[in-house]
Amino acid sequence: MIYAGYPTGKLCVLLVNDSRIREFNKVYRGIDRTTDILSFSMKEGLSIGVDSAMLGDIVISLPAAKRQSFKCKKDIYSVLTELLIHGILHLLGYDHEASTYQAKKMKKKEKEIFGRIKD
Questions:
Q1: Within the chain, where are the H helices?
Q2: How many whole angstroms separate alpha carbon 18 and alpha carbon 16?
Q3: Which of 38, 86, 87, 112 has its CA 20 to 30 A from that of 10?
Q4: Which pLDDT score, from 0 to 100, does residue 64 have?
């Protein structure tokens, strides 16, 4: 997280199957379909101030990551790393769904962080 401007922080990562992430997506976002990743921030809503170092929770669908790995011809570890970076950036306030500008900003930060980790 240091590459995102946060030298310390805690988070919880949960690896699940497609049906479980679909259930989370339906309950918490009202979207009844599977997805690859969900982020639940502890820096908003009723969670503010509970644990100042706790950023939140990230839920990743392993089957979705495997499909992306196959489709993009990348190893599963790279895909999981990319998804984790994506989720952490959401916890830090990045939102690619807010606007085209925000999407570009987030994608640029993802590439920057992934590049630093790979080096």
A1: 18-29, 62-72, 76-91, 100-118
A2: 7
A3: 112
A4: 98
pLDDT tens, 49-106? 555 678 899 999 999 999 999 999 999 999 999 999 999 999 988 989 899 999 999 9
Number of H helices, E strands in the chain: 4, 3
Measure CA 18 to chain center. 16
**CA–CA gap between residue 13 and residue 100 (Å, rounded):** 28
The CA–CA distances, whole Å, from 18 to 7, 28, 36 equal: 32, 15, 8
Judge whether 60 and 14 are in contact, CB under 8 Å: yes
